[in-house]
Amino acid sequence: MSLRNKVTLIGFTGKEVEIISFENGNVKAAVSLATSDHYTNAKGEKVEETQWHNLVAFGKTAEIFQKYVPKGKEIAVEGKLTYRSYDDKDGVKRYITEIRVDEILLLGGK
């Protein structure tokens, strides 16, 4: 079992899946995923913190996203953490952190 660079998340999709088709026939799916953490702060108040994650998937996994994952769907994903950068229209370097999904499990919800 390889535990190097492994990410497992359970959450709800925040938008419709964006599908990009490449000339070579490959398909990429991109979607955001919200995960929430609940705790009680020092004042005894219940607090909910939500984190947003960028997910990307390719090939058959992307096709599963396209067919079965609408906005608001609860899913579990497993993949690896990836980083990339690009220069925006003003020439400023932008950095993106993504989870490259290898496996998806469709859970309850919408």
How is the secondary structure organized here?
Elements lengths: L6 E7 L4 E4 L5 E14 L5 E13 H10 L4 E15 L5 E17 L1
Parallel strand pairs: 4-6
Antiparallel strand pairs: 1-3, 1-5, 2-3, 3-4, 5-6
What can you see in these coordinates?
This protein is mainly β and about 110 residues long. It has a single domain (about 5-110), classed as Nucleic acid-binding proteins (OB fold (Dihydrolipoamide Acetyltransferase, E2P), Beta Barrel). It is built from one helix and six strands. It has one helix spanning about 60-70, and strands at about 5-15, 20, 25-40, 45-60, 75-85, 95-110. The protein has a five-stranded mixed β-barrel. The longest helix is centred in the middle third of the chain and has 10 residues, at about 60-70. It is globular. About 15% of the residues are buried. The model has no long low-confidence stretch (mean pLDDT about 95).
